[in-house]
Amino acid sequence: MIIYILCFVLFLVGLYGVVSKRNLIKIIIGIAIMEYSINLFLIMIGYIEGGTAPIITKGFENAKFVDPLPQAMILTSIVIGLATTALLLAVAIRLYQKYGTFDINKIKDLKG
Amino acid sequence: MELYLIIILVLMILGSIYSLNASDLLSAVISYGIVGFGLVIAFLLLQAPDLAIVQVVVEVATLIIMIATIKNTQRNIPKMELKPKIAVYYAITLIMALVFVLIFDRATGCLNQFGADTMRMAQPYIDGAADTKSANLVTGVVFDFRAYDTLGEATVLFTAVIGVLTILRIKGKKEEKK
Description:
The structure holds two protein chains of two kinds. Chain A has helices at 2-20, 24-45, 68-99.
């Protein structure tokens, strides 16, 4: 089970970045790291010892495959992760243009 | 196999810690690349080649967007007067991390051991793979059994692109009035 716990430690590192860093870019990096660790964890659950990639080729019709379902779901999740990261960075650029800093302590008047 | 994964995961954790503590945003983004490309190798080891390909593309795109952002704004992180760091903070952080790990260990205790998945959910998809005429089971699931999910994904992507364009447009309503 140590491999699951290492994956969770990666999640905790991302959480530490989101909670304790003041720079907006660092916070975005923290969010992306959390997302990556979740993706990796779900793929690890679907792994089968000695399994091959779930692609049917000649001579491998009845081979032992790894679980294709989490892979299909994570394929969706990775692409959506790119979209959310791009949106966050766009908001960060706009905030920088308005306030001239990435420091969230100095960006205080977020109302309106 | 498991040993390789552990080595890559440790590398990813070190890269992410350095990335979050770097004093220069460009080096932070580059060491964030360690995490993404380590994930690619982990996907290849876990027999998920489709995911590895997608992850390479996504990681390169993310790095390009981040570096473009930093180039157009500010690279260095200005030093600020830091509050005195008390040992209590470190202790609280460590205790919270330990509690989280313990809860995670309890929560995942009911799962299968690593490498011993039973494919309880995936068996119908594999049995029906012949109907989709797709050699790749993953694309069979994404584009055939769960095509509506993929449509939703395309909608989310489209919405995000519209959002980025809306946020970053140069001409606003105020300027048009003048």
